[in-house]
Amino acid sequence: METVVIQPSIAVLISLVIAIKAYKRKSLDVTGAVAGFIVMTLHLAISYRFGAVLLVFFFTSSKLTKVGEDKKRSIDAEFKEGGQRNWMQVLSNSGIASVLALAVWRLAGWEDKCLDGKESAVITSLIGGIIGHYSCCNGDTWSSELGVLSDAQPRLITTFKVEGYFLFFTHTHPTSQVNALS
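Structure tokens predicted for Protein PGR:
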């Protein structure tokens, strides 16, 4: 019974502190801080492990966003100091994992589960999906934050050759993908 009250209360407190600090440090705008608070509370309330995976993604990506800010400012017309992610970026990077976390909670309740295919292949798959989701988000965010700092042409990971025309899609504006195609 205490998990039902204590863990969500701790989740709200931790999420509130982190969302406020992220807003003050300009990692998130107001909408991003609100969305981040909700997503982080959800993750931590369901499982501290899910919250830890989310926080590793958030802290490392926020740190890398600040690397090379001067160069990023000079090449990105929509550059925002500190990154200032909004609600769309927060949900883009956490929406699928949030749905998977809710599915784990629906199946397991407040019982903490870990990767154990013998006990439940479905729960193990869902947890693996959460970990995999944030791994992909890390790869995408880290590569876009660090890749833009390189003067070299990007290479295909399959052939290690520079081939063709590469489109770079940024996380700074919802229409950036459409603009890149025009």
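The radius of gyration is 18 Å.
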